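Bug #77: duplicate submission created two jobs. Keeping one. Sequence:
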Amino acid sequence: MHTSSRRDFLLTAAAAAAALSAVSCGATSSARGSANGRLRIAQIGCGGKGLSDMQACAKQHDIVALCDVDDGKAGNARQEHPKAAFYHDYRDLLDQEKLDAVVISTPDHSHAVPALIAMQLGLHVFVQKPLSHTVEEARVMLHAARKSGVITSMGNQGTCLDGFRSAAEFVRSGAIGDVGEVHVWTNRPVWPQGIARPEHIDAIPSSLRWDLWLGAAPYRPFAASRKDSGFSGYAPFHWRGFWDFGTGALGDMACHLANLPFFALELGAPDWVEADSEGMTDETAPKASTIRFGFGPRNGRGPCIVHWYDGGRTPPLETLPSEDDRKGLRALTEGGFLLIGQKGKLFSPTDYGESYALYPKVKFADLKPPPQTLPRSPGIHEEWLAGILANKQPLASFEYSAPFTETMLLGNIALRLGHRIEWDAKNLRVTNDANAEQFLKKNYSRGFELIRG
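Kept job's structure:
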């Protein structure tokens, strides 16, 4: 049995604060002063996106520890790094390994707790999108990042692309004028949503630590794929639609598709959010939804409404650039976004915004790019890693990505409540419905409590 007192202490806010004090000159300082410039990195979540995250970090740094609850999903990572220590439980890893940084590529419901423990230990953290499972977690993670001073990043890779940054420069230069309307759409979900909880119970695969996969989530029996019921199994992918584990189509893709509008327009927190949907259940996100986020005047700009569409819903075709309807129709079957300004439109038929155009084309044909105000990036992982060595936060740091994630997840609150919500960002509360509290926060299983210190 694991008897380390440090793990026990880390599961309480008071002890977490003590741990932070003890390591205030620990991992962060040693990383910046490492003799060979190579960081000691742990990868938590080794399959799927976790594998590519690990591979990106391994190009110039050392993967010294791996963690995954599924032996099968960890196989490739372990083969690539046979000398790395392997764990099923990230709490054991963080308790026992000497590290500089941690990459967290797990399901949404298990992002916050390992990230918070790592930050309390002075470790730099990279967390896959969406940054958090709940609105409260995003706020707590931001405060922890500020308090610890570690270098952080969310894994919304579009942020690092040249096209993303040049598009933001065009928007901020005023090329398309004040933007009062934004449309964002996706082809998600491509997993089951709008379904009830499976009634069948299956044997847990011998390769899977189901208790650790559940982590902070309430216990439920394991259920495998059943074609006759339309259920495709929780792990390793179709958890995304279930409220206990994922954040639905909005949580999965808004951190990509709404990223450029949110960043370029410096939207901040919305004043209100409203939504309508079809196929809604208490168990999962809906089959399809439309969500509207209302932002007031800010930074010299007028009010703006951001429209989100998923599950086959799309913006009105007349909003798309008229000379680009054919291309627009293709884009509407996948994902993209459209900013509508007083002087023109910026349209991107991509998830990340790396490819875009200004409309009407004739008007902007001879427009020269504005002065470059944003540094260009070597890549989402590389920018974070370089930032650790240079003590410089990347553009996708928690300072930006936590408020962004918080805003996007408010869309799920509006969906679950079924009516427009009025948002008080300063006090982290919905002012017109006390029932929202149950969705802004969540309960945590014993041993996986949220550190709110």
